[in-house]
Design brief:
Layout lengths: L2 H16 L11 E6 L2 E7 L8 H9 L7 E4 L13 H7 L4 E4 L11 H8 L3 E4 L3 H17 L3 E8 L4 E3 L11 H13 L2 E5 H7 L16 E5 L11 H4 L5 E6 L4 H9 L3 E5 L1 E2 L2 E2 L1 H10 L4 E6 L1 H9 L5 E6 L10 E2 L15 E9 L2 E8 L30
Parallel strand pairs: 3-4, 4-5, 6-14, 6-15, 8-9, 8-14, 9-10, 10-11
Antiparallel strand pairs: 1-2, 1-3, 7-16, 12-13, 15-18, 17-18
Helix pairs in contact: 3-4
Amino acid sequence: MTADDLRWMRRALALARAGTGHASPNPSVGCVLVKGGRNVGEAFHRYVGRDHAEVLAVRQAGSRARGATAYVSLEPCAHHGRTPPCADLLIESGIRRVVVPILDPNPLVCGRGIERMRAAGIQSEIGLMQAEAGRVIEPFACHIRSGLPLVVAKVGMSLDGRIAAPMGRDHWISSAEARTFGQSLRHRLDAILVGVGTILDDDPQLTYRGAAPKARPLVRVVLDSRLRTPPSARLFDAEPSLPVIVFCSGGSPGKRRRALERRGAEVIPVDHSRSGLDLRAVLKELGRRDMLGVLVEGGSTIHGAFISAELVDKFYFNIAPLVLGGSRSVSAVGGSGYSTVSDAPRFEIVKHFRAGCDVILETYPSYSRSMLSPWLRSTSAPSSSRSSPNASERR
């Protein structure tokens, strides 16, 4: 690998990141074709347009694609999904060399694209900027391998781990810059999830309000076992076209269900136990709808439930420089807690950064399913042993 390889792969990854908010339920992919040291074609994938990044870049390059090097942020596909295989296209276009950072976690591809191109005589290299490429496709990789969305939790809290004073949220805990970061997570992920307590206490809109365009509507999800969500809640008025899904227990009152459905909500019963709604059933339903990632924004009870069920893959702790104190202020993570320190789940802090006056910790719990989890012992390519029910429909 050369300095030029690094330069052009950075460009391919920048294009892939530009596709965030446009590609789901496909992975966000960028492609650059280089010939004689010059960029002769580049593109990123938009799901609505069907054509993959490689197709668009080759089309832009035309005859100049022959003999060029293709820098692709993800292994070119090798199967017929919505479109023909991109590996075949690169072969037919006369590409001389392909550089990719990471294999496609889709079991229908995983290594087959590289094998096909190498068999055709194309020099194919893997591994350059692998970690950066993994961050781009993290939600897709989780979903395509497990059928469940990547679960990203976020909480804004004080230095002493509190999210609200006893009298409620009279003021934002998080800084404006931290709230902007929260919008970037809503841009990247397909759904936002809260408990009914958040609806009753804060009456949030749960919308995406960032500057970057988002093609796929953000789905608002409420966990509400007894259907206490009021039909007058602001989430129904903010953007009526955005989907609202309310998960409840099977015995919820039919009158309340009909009232929410008249407001546009889809009400879905799931199993319920003493510990609450069946969160795995909730995630399974969201995964069935091709939601690659879900942002869990709480509140305290919901965060406690997801952690105790070991269903959080990534957790952002947004720490504001203030102390609420007291026994009546609301903790960031509720539930019954853990009897001993040794029982408590462990988190690895992989990154920390400032957001205004706040500090944000990017962490992974030990049970995370993310391909980027630092707890994983193997750094090899994603396994192809498991497949999503809808894998054949992708890419």
